[in-house]
Amino acid sequence: MSVVTVFVPKDAAAVSVGADDVAVALSQESQSRGIDINLIRNGSRGLLWLEPLVEVETTSGRIAFGPVSASDISGLFDAGFLSGGNHDLSHGVTEEIPYLANQERLTFARCGVIDPLDLTAYESHGGLVGLKKALELEPLAIVEEVTVSGLRGRGGAGFPAGLKWETVRKESADQKYICCNADEGDSGTFADRLLMEGDPFTLLEGMVIAGRAVGADTGYIYIRSEYPHAIRALSDAVSSFEQANLLGKNILGSGQAFTIYIRIGAGAYICGEESSMLESLEGKRGQVRAKPPIPAISGLFGKPTVVNNVLTLATVPYVLANGGKTYSDYGQGRSRGTQPFQLAGDIARGGLVEKAFGVTLRELVEGFGGGTLSGRPVRTAQVGGPLGAYIPEAAFDVQMDYESLAGSGAMLGHGGVVVFNELVDMARQARFAMEFCEIESCGKCTPCRIGSVRGKETLDKIIVGEDLEKNLAVLEDLCVLMTDGSLCAMGGLTPMPVTSALKHFPEDFGLARQTVE
Amino acid sequence: MVSNQEERLREAEPAQEPDEKRATLKICQDHGSRPDNLIEVLHAVQARDGYLSDDSLRDIAACLNLTRAEVHGVASFYHDFRRIPPGKTVVKICLAEACQALGCDALKEHAEEVLSTDMGATSSDGEVSLEPVYCLGNCALGPAVMFNGDLYGRVTPEKLDSLVSGADI
After folding, report:
1. Which end of chain A is more exposed for a tag (fewer CB within 10 A), N or C?
2. Assembly ipTM
3. In angstroms, rounded to a whole number, what is the distance separating the alpha carbons of residues A323 and A147?
4. A272 touches chain B (CB under 8 A)
5. For domain A119-328, which architecture applies?
6. pLDDT, tens digit, for every residue of A118-152?
7. Where in chain A is the domain with CATH 3.40.50.11540?
8. Cβ within 8 Å of B, A 195-234
9. Is the dihedral of CA B5, B10, B14, B18 positive or negative?
10. Integer Rg of chain B from CA
């Protein structure tokens, strides 16, 4: 029998439920049985409820087994899993698992498929095609390709990437920067982390392309300290790229220069806001900057700077390799391409679902997610992180794109979906939104710094039923003030979860349903 | 350049253990003695000492040509930086929405009880620090816990108990 290849993810989520133990048990068991296996530690496929997901390479494709624990290994060998043998944990061919088969994986095409740090595998799975094309194109042509793709900022703001790049490209300056925002702090989101651990080369490739497009020779990745596995993966990936002449003074002999530095955050949610992140990159307190000037004109160290999210930059290689038009064929309206949605919270099949814009929230939560993990009825989902709206189950037919969500008083944010069951107390959730803003506010502007504290206090009074009518008026007034008067989205959007909870679930605030409706 | 830094360091009073001061100087120099590397330097010094002492902050300020107020401002802004030593074991429990949906509040209460420590505090014997964290990026497998730097998912009270007994707290 030839040597069989077995994949065990080394993604943080997989490791958090025992993937390292599984890998060790697999090596030991194969040794004691005298069977040679080729063990590859891949990234995660994003089918997180099946982690640790072990895959075996067979003639009919990769066969998935999961969730596997170290104690299952002996039984798997007994069942002949190395030749795809039948076992209770088998899910058949990985690519045919409906959760995966029904996705449109463009940005995440390689994630979970290859060893994240194997450059040869990266290339044989379509990596570097985009970069090589870009090196032959004039900067303007690269920007135009990105503009045609319709790619918008995946960090949450949804600003057209091509327009941002063009602004930086047209600036004349002795120094420009590409800054990758990898400060993925929203609860319910983990797509950046999955990608940085599972396919870090894609992000680096996207940054080099961005550098050529706008005339920047230096890039920074600002990654949060809560992601130690991703920091290690990225650092190793940068070293590999440097050794392969894919970073440096003369990339692949093209004359193009680009250097990438990795900077570690220090546990401040606000540093996901772009101007706060720039302050932090300069070694300062992560306080928000007033705009204008926008970073594209005056960003890091006062120089023109592209600030893009991980997913935005990681999508660029696909756009260059396949053409902007191909990417824009996915999606609907002004939301072109695909969005990596993340299913989290009380959900049976949590994980990453990359789909073209337009999929409904119901398809995500019920179709892909399979309802709640607890088995209790779904009551609501918070979409778009801690600053996103709580959408009631009855409104789950909303289409997931920038405009449709905005039209229903919600926002896409970074694409996180956190599902709550019937036991959730929405007044407590509203209070938490204010509390979180109090903890994480940078303190620069008054509406956010003081408003969040007053909001929490007012909700405390509402929760115990004190002067309900008066306190609701105060809360409403505070929300308007924070929305209109805050410097950035932190204070400006904190009212969104609060007012959506109040609007859709007034009974949790001690009100009769019709009072608000 | 270097001699100037050493001179400023000598002037920084009161004197600290010379070895430690030299090590701090070395960390700053390894980061190019650049003020924009302040956060990296603070991370490195905290990795060495477990926290940021007043002496370290003064030395860092001298090395990077910053005021002590500037260094204090940064050290106090970021949640990661500690000004007092942590417990031998650090338990971080995610208290953000995705973990709330899976009962992290109950897990927090359980942890406070078994560790006899309030959230955000260090036990009186210095054995354990219990800290809140807002998202570890393991939102599909909550509740999530970081136990001495290792990430765990689907952490039930029983699972937490086994981690605690394994760490011999």
Report:
1. N
2. 0.94
3. 11
4. no
5. 3-Layer(aba) Sandwich (3.40)
6. 999 999 999 999 999 999 999 999 999 999 999 99
7. 119-328
8. 225-229
9. positive
10. 19
